[in-house]
Structure formats: C-alpha cells, structure tokens
Amino acid sequence: MNRSPNQNESSAYVQPDVGGIVSRVVWRARVRMFSALMEQVKPTSEIKVLDVGVTCDRRPDSNFFEKLYPFPHNITAVGLEDASFLEQEFPGVRFLRANGKQLPFPDKSFDLVVSFAVLEHVGNRLEQQRFVRELCRVGKQCYITTPNRWHPIEFHTVLPLVHWLPPKWFRVIARLLGKDFFASEANLNLLDDREVSAMFPNQAKIAPNHHRLGGFISNLVYLVTFSDTGG
C-alpha cells in the first residue's frame, strides 16, 4: 500500500453494485455514521479537519464526508490516489496526495481527523497499528471506522460467513471464487473490536459508537479523544 494505486486498482476496492442496491445501503450507513459524528463532536466552522483516505472513485457513496460536511473550507483531504477534483467539486477543500501511515503534518495539527473504512486496506496488523497511531498523532480527536469482521456479510466481496474462517482459509476461498484482489492481505485485512481497540495509544479516551445492520454490528466506529485537548 506504499505505492500509489492506478485507476483500475482503485476501482477494485469498490463492491459489486447490482442494481445500485449496495451503493444505496452503503450510503445510508455512511450517512448514519456521519450524523453520529456530528452529534458527538458538534464541529464548528472554525475547527481544522483532516480526512484520510479519499478516493478517485466517483460512485455516489464515495468521498461522502466532503459531500455532507457543512464547512468544506476547513477540510484537508488526503489519499494515495489523485483526488484533486475534490478541490473543484467542493470549493475550499484542500487535497494532498500522501500516505496515511506517514502524514506530512506536525503533531496535533488538526482538531479532528476522520477516516472512514480505510483501516482494513492498509496491510498487516503492524501497518494497521502504524496507520491508527499516525492519525492519533496529528489529530486532537479522531473518528475512525472499519467494517466488523464478525458481521455475517463481508461487504467487499459480498460473501456470507466465509470471512469468519481463519484468514488463510478465507483467502483461499476468495481466490477460488475469482476475488483475487481481496484475497490479498495488502488489500483487505478485516478486524474485530478487540484488535482495533488494542491499536490506540494508552493516553487515548475511546468512545465506541458501533453501527448495526440487520441486528449485527456491521461497522466498528470509534471517537478517540486525548486528555490534553480538553475533550
């Protein structure tokens, strides 16, 4: 994940969207998570926000934070892909092409850092922890989401239950079903609540607010605050 993906690789991250059903379900879930963020943080027009993990994909549910956030002039958007079009579509947004595991910003330079469904795509457990710690380094508060491994449906492959198997078995089955891209740990590495919670710095105050779909936790959602911010 250190190299920049090309356009074809970027599109591989997007779930199948037969009849637009997946896109609509994903959009509703993301709106709910966005609404929860706004309720918990209550951001004002003055706070500086960093969105880590924007994409060049143009599907309706992509880059939803930029579409919904009421103060785009204070958003800095970061991604591996070229998403510079965000600056034209959402005047005031600043785009920077950079790796989320090595952000070019000083410590605590943003009031709020958000990252939606990126953590599962950054590599092995050590790389995932590095990503989480880097978000926490530059942010006074962080809002991080990732799909829950223990939901019955794996949302990227739209396969039921097979991701509950040991990861090696899941990857073998994914390849047999022609889903080679997501069979790679570098492209998809699912987590559960225990694994994500262990990645946060010791001084962080964690407020989980997980999202449910069909009665099961579908998305792990964390508001992370550091005591020296007054939060």
What key attributes describe this structure?
Rossmann fold; 231 residues; two-stranded antiparallel ribbon; alpha/beta; single chain
Report on this model:
Strand 6 and strand 7 form a beta hairpin. By secondary structure, the chain is an alpha/beta fold. The mean pLDDT is 91. It has one domain: Rossmann fold. The chain is 28% helix and 21% strand. The chain is globular. Strands 1, 2, 3, 4, 5, 8, 9 and 10 form an eight-stranded mixed β-sheet that branches. It has helices spanning 7-12, 21-41, 64-68, 86-89, 125-138, 167-176, 193-197, and strands spanning 49-52, 75-79, 94-97, 112-116, 141-147, 153-154, 159-160, 204-208, 211-213, 216-226. The protein is built from seven helices and ten strands. The protein starts with 6 loop residues before the first helix and ends in a 5-residue tail after the last strand.
Summarize the entry for a quick read:
The protein has 231 residues and is of the alpha/beta class. It has one domain (7-229): Rossmann fold (3-Layer(aba) Sandwich), CATH 3.40.50.
The number of distinct structural domains comes to 1
Structural class call reads alpha/beta
- Rounded radius of gyration (Å): 17 Å
Oligomer: single chain
User: How many strands in all?
Assistant: 10
CATH topology: Rossmann fold
CATH class, anyone? Alpha Beta
| Overall body shape | globular
Portion in beta strands: 15-25%
Mean pLDDT comes to 91
Task: Tell me about the largest β-sheet.
Answer: 8 strands, mixed
CATH superfamily: Vaccinia Virus protein VP39
Low-confidence stretches: none
- Which CATH-level-2 architecture? 3-Layer(aba) Sandwich
- What is the number of helices? 7
Helix content: 25-40%
Determine the N-to-C terminus distance. Answer: 33 Å
The string of secondary-structure elements, in order, is HHEHEHEEHEEEHHEEE
